[in-house]
Amino acid sequence: MEKREIKFRIWEKPGVLLSSSEGTTDFKGKMHLQDDWSFWGYALKRPEEYELMQLAHAKDKNHKDIYEGDVVQKGKMRYLIELRDGCFGIFTRHYGWECLSKWSNIEVIGNIYENPELFKAQKQRNYV
Fold first, then answer.
1. Are 88 and 81 in contact (CB under 8 A)?
2. Which domain does 69 fall in, by range?
């Protein structure tokens, strides 16, 4: 059996205030990768202030890791990567829910936390 790497990233919601001996910092939204362990200990104690995203075990056409919450593009269409029923995938207007493993030649163009405008316009036009 092949070992599967489990990776996460975490979005710190805008307006979160963190206090330390050096004062209070407003991070105004920032993405942290799994290797930022000093931050993770704090974040896991305050889940209401963060969004956790798991690696989808897929790469885009540029060999970039795809995470839950990413916005991907294929042609002119944009899709949101979600986790449903144990499968990372996308919801399309024509085909409904499809696992990510059925898709190829997609490109990560951002994520819904750092780039909400990427998905909002598409969703309003054509709920995908």
1. yes
2. 8-126
CA-to-CA dists, residue 91 to 3, 47, 61, 115, angstroms: 28, 26, 20, 19
pLDDT tens per residue across span 73-85:
999 899 999 999 8
pTM assigned to the model: 0.74
| CA distance linking residue 67 with residue 58, whole number of Å | 8
| Token pair listed for 44 | 């896991």
Residue 18's Cβ-side half-sphere holds a number of Cα atoms within 13 Å equal to 20
User: How many other C-beta atoms can be found within 10 angstroms of the C-beta atom of residue 112?
Assistant: 21
CATH number at residue 98: 2.30.30.290
Assess contact for 29 and 56: CB atoms under 8 A.
no
Flag whether 2 is in a domain: no
